[in-house]
């Protein structure tokens, strides 16, 4: 199954489609977990929801690290240097494990205080503490899966990561259900919210073992390469130099989402719920953009590694075309079916109305988001991770929050607050498109540089 770095590169759709499927599976499973714990009670739903927000900080570090590793791995793979690609992959996994262990220990200690920040009390607080502490023990396994599969996509292999993800999630839901509700046939006791965390964690353990063994035994396209953070310190610094802006970008996104949520929450419980439901629906449509972003990052990096800057530019624009086309279609469908979608998720008339308004804003924003995903992915694949951080800061924090606060001070309704999303994505799309069009990101890859 092992291939050389000179293997034929996949098409944009050939890499984007399995990535979209992978992200879709992941999001659907997250929704299914909420459905499982909903039978336990409101406290358990609050625990999973809060835990997800907390773990997003850990995931931000892992995803940022994978973005930096993808750029270096794709560049090395395109240059015909599979050993360098494997070295960067190995180092990214080790750094990811270390980052996960430190973050997990920190959150195990801080979770009671974080629960207070989210104003959780009584059973909801206790359930959150249990869920976060039991889940945190398996974050390193999650990091192994994410970073190795991301490395595979950087080499152009989108299907094996999809198979691995499907395997993990085929175990995830049955284990969660069995340990949450108990399984008398196998003498498995009912563990409640702890069982939900343990079920998911065991699935990650088994998935990480399988992924590691496949890689270690050279069954994957990307060869295995031993590494040492101490002995390969130059390579570690190179990886960190590209990764830390991507990590910071993910953290900015999480901070901005939290701050925006606090503004929405000042209006009403219905507005707060509508925002949450809308984000849940958005998570299904956003996987399309994420898939094209992965394709752009891997293929642009490979072309630059092969010394083909013009082909890298062409891939960026072709990926943009496909992303805009598909996400505009999804935006139109979201707008057309906004009320039925909202009605499917909730029963409250006011929440349905506000969710439909929020989905309207999201639908309008889809083509703009496509620019951010496609060309932002292309820039990251070229190693230009600082500019996407700048555009995210300008869009999310400076524009969205500033516009929302101005609307709030003017006494405008929450519908106007939702409209701040459009201003955010306009700014980001303009900045990202201009950066790609300017070709400044190509300078480090030109012969004269």
Uncertain segments are: 1-6
Which geometry do the CA atoms define? globular
Oligomer: single chain
Q: How many strand units?
A: 0
Number of helices: 14
- Computed over alpha carbons, the radius of gyration is 22 Å
| Total number of domains | 2
Structural class of the secondary structure composition?
A: mainly alpha
Task: Provide the β-strand percentage band.
Answer: under 5%
- Largest sheet geometry: none
Molecular structure report:
The chain is globular, with a radius of gyration of 22 Å. The two termini are 37 Å apart. The longest helix is centred in the N-terminal third of the chain and has 37 residues, at 42-78. The protein has 449 residues and is an all-alpha fold. It has helices at residues 12-38, 42-78, 82-117, 122-136, 139-154, 159-181, 193-216, 233-265, 269-305, 309-336, 338-345, 349-381, 386-409, 414-438. Helix 9 packs antiparallel against helix 10 (309-336). Helix content is 82%, strand content 0%.
List keywords for this structure.
449 residues; mainly alpha
Outline the fold blueprint.
Layout: H1 12-38, H2 42-78, H3 82-117, H4 122-136, H5 139-154, H6 159-181, H7 193-216, H8 233-265, H9 269-305, H10 309-336, H11 338-345, H12 349-381, H13 386-409, H14 414-438
Quick summary of this structure?
With 449 residues, the chain is mostly helical. It contains 14 helices and no strands.
């Amino acid at each position: 199954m092992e291939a050389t770095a000179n293997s034929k590169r996949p098409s944009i759709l050939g890499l984007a489609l399995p990535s979209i499927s992978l992200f879709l599976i992941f999001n659907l499973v997250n929704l299914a977990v909420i459905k499982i714990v909903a039978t336990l009670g409101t406290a358990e739903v609050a625990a999973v929801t809060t835990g997800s927000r907390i773990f997003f900080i850990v995931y931000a570090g892992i995803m940022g690290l994978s973005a930096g590793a993808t750029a270096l791995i794709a560049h090395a793979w395109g240059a015909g240097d599979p050993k360098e690609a494997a070295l960067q992959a190995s180092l990214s996994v080790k750094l990811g494990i270390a980052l996960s262990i430190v973050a997990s220990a920190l959150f195990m200690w801080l979770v009671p205080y974080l629960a207070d920040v989210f104003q959780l009390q009584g059973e909801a607080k206790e359930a959150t503490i249990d869920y976060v502490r039991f889940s945190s023990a398996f974050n390193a396994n999650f990091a192994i899966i994410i970073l190795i599969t991301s490395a595979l996509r950087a080499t152009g292999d989108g299907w094996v990561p999809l198979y691995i993800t499907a395997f993990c999630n085929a175990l995830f839901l049955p284990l969660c259900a069995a340990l949450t509700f108990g399984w008398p046939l196998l003498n498995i006791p009912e563990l409640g919210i702890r069982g939900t965390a343990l079920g998911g964690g065991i699935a990650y353990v088994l998935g990480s073992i399988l992924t590691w063994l496949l890689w270690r035994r050279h069954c994957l396209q990307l060869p295995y390469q031993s590494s040492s953070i101490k002995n390969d310190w130059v390579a570690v610094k190179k990886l960190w130099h590209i990764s830390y802006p991507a990590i910071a970008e993910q953290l900015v996104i999480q901070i901005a989402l939290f701050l925006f949520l606090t503004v929405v929450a000042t209006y009403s419980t219905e507005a707060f719920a509508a925002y949450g439901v809308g984000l849940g629906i958005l998570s299904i449509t956003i996987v399309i953009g994420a898939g094209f972003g992965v394709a752009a990052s891997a293929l642009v990096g490979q072309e630059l590694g092969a010394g083909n800057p013009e082909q890298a530019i062409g891939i960026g624009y072709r990926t943009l075309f496909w992303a805009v086309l598909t996400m505009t279609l999804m935006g139109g469908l979201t707008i057309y079916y906004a009320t039925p979608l909202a009605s499917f998720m909730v029963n409250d008339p006011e929440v349905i109305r506000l969710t439909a308004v929020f989905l309207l804003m999201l639908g309008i924003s889809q083509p703009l988001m496509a620019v951010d995903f496609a060309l932002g992915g292309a820039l990251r694949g070229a190693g230009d991770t600082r500019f996407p951080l700048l555009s995210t800061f300008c869009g999310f924090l400076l524009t969205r929050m500033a516009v929302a606060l101005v609307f709030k001070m003017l006494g405008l309704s929450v519908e106007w607050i939702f409209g701040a999303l459009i201003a955010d994505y306009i700014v980001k799309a303009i900045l990202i498109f201009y950066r790609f069009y300017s070709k400044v990101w190509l300078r480090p890859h030109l012969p004269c540089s």
